Amino acid sequence: MSFTSITHTCQYNEEDGTMRMYLRGRPVVLHGPSDQDGLDPAKVAPPPQNKLKLEWVYGYRGKDCRSNLYLLPTGEIVYFVASVVVLFNVEEQCQRHYTGHTDDVKCLAVHPNKLIVASGQCAGHDRVDARPHVRVWNSVSLATLAVLGAGQAERGIWAVAFSRADGGSLLAAIHDAPDHVISVWDWQRSDKGHCLAETKCSVDTVVAVEFHPLDRNQIVTCGKNHIAFWTLDQTNVLYKRMGIFEARDKPKYVTCLAFNHNGDVLSGDSSGNLTVWGRGTNTVQRLVRAVHDGPVFSVACLKHGAVLSAGGKDGRIVMFDADVNPTGLENVIEGHYGGVRVLAEGRGSQLYVGTTKNCILHGDLELGFSPAVLGHVEEVWGLAAHPSLAWFASAGWDRLLQLWDALSHSTVWSKDIEERAQCVSWSADGGVLAVGCLSGRWLVLDPHSRDVLAQHQDGSEPIQTIQYSPDNKMVALGSRDNFIYIYRVEDNGARYSRLGKCLGHSSYITHLDWSEDSQYIRSNSGDYELLFWNATTCRQVTSPSSLRDAAWASNTCPITFTTVGVWPENADGTDINSCARSRDGRLAATGDDFGKVKLYAYPVTQPKSLCHAYGGHSSHVTCVRFTQDGARLLSAGGLDTSLMQWLVD
């Protein structure tokens, strides 16, 4: 969290009470209310007294990351999404968060003492703060113990591992670079650690690194076309021996690693095979063919010696004995959760399963699995808080519409709407839920039965925003095709008849708000216009000053007189994706292109307005919304697929 000071070229005209703001050199004239006292654009407005505290993170990154789910002795599972590492106690339903990273976390490792965690991130927006690096931290206190490799990796850290045979004094990291560098660190030496060795690993992609649990200074890496056995010698030089496959058995990818109780290496590959490599050798001791249809994404050796393998495509989890003979015990996870990305041993016979569709399941092989974490799988843009309950809805390009309970932090339901969704909105009474899609189609659903009550098509471009009028008699839809479509709402939101469309914007519609009396609409567009409309006639109000005293039911339009101060200096006009005002009118929040959620005192009429800024998301923050009671703020992270819930203190 940081203070942000904002200045930009704004001119206030005291005679006619207008603010002229420039976005990318284009002037936007904004009319203040007639009772507006004189504004001094050079004055700085203070930040709000309230602050935000991250309360809950919805989502998990299993789609494209590996080895990222572990159980800690505290009873918490540790995993990541966006730039947050989440510690979630499933039984007690409570979360804690490590928020030291500045961009996407890509990998995770737990120290043999089960207390210390290492996590690696990719390069981010900020040239200095967001260089790729590894952070080592205490999972109980959440204190950062060391930051390793900042400035050394080019694009990101792909995999990390602690040494095991010596009690965990070393850490290995794989850097994503053209030659995939492996580095070994004495991480406890100073808060920046000490790099003992660094060498080119492979021109091919490397997906995993592990220290041998019994043999000191032995490391195994694997990836495209290879498995490699490394030795770190007395002089801290790394030597490599490549694993030798028989020609017909050489897989395209060696995808995962584990060690059995004898110290043999077990590897899974893209052909669905399991291979046992004799301890201390680089030769195949045993090959178990076609265990899975498709790749093996995870191999786990359990406390009692049994071996589990999991399929990334077939979703099967298969149990073997310690000598890799099948036991006949297996289970398949339901296809809509995706394939298995990673297995983590829980208490007793319990397992946690991370999936390729960003879910975490919990259960065992005999009784099956149920979801502990559900999330979106592709970009998420739609977010809407229920007008009276503690519910909120989210919708994304993965065709999923999800209803959540902000108090129990749980999914009420999840529905595949068979269309990629761009926006979502509740009717004014919360009776129905409308979803705007990328195809120009929009659907209205009953939130209790999940039935589709109505569906319409307006144009062939994405519906960017939907807003119901405060009296619930009309709904306005802003489209990428530059038009606003207005419908009359009938039958409690189950039927719609088109009143007309508003023509006048010269670019796509980005946001819109209704006046409190449901008579007028204001809208912003991709070329930074603020236009006003008579809702019943669909005609433009060509004299904006006539609406300077209109009371607006919301402030989702970021280009307004009351949100001048949310725009940073030299803003390009598309930096701010979303804006929201709390129901009591005391706070405004924004989500921007730099992964930041910002909180302002409302109205934000001073061009220079200080705010509180919060990281956590690692992609564009696509939407922010306050809950109906103003006690929480919700944010959607676009490409990072996460939803975050913040307490307003």
TrEMBL record:
Residues 95-363 form the EML-like first beta-propeller domain. The keyword Cell membrane does not apply. One of its GO terms (molecular function) is microtubule binding. One of its GO terms (cellular component) is mitotic spindle. Gene3D superfamilies: YVTN repeat-like/Quinoprotein amine dehydrogenase. SMART domains: WD40. WD repeats lie at residues 373-414, 502-543, 614-649. It holds the Pfam family Beta-prop_EML. One of its GO terms (biological process) is microtubule cytoskeleton organization. It comes from the Eukaryota. Residues 380-647 form the EML-like second beta-propeller domain. It is found in: Cytoplasm, Cytoskeleton. Its main location: cytoplasm. Belongs to the WD repeat EMAP family. This is Echinoderm microtubule-associated protein-like 2. It comes from Bombyx mori (Silk moth).
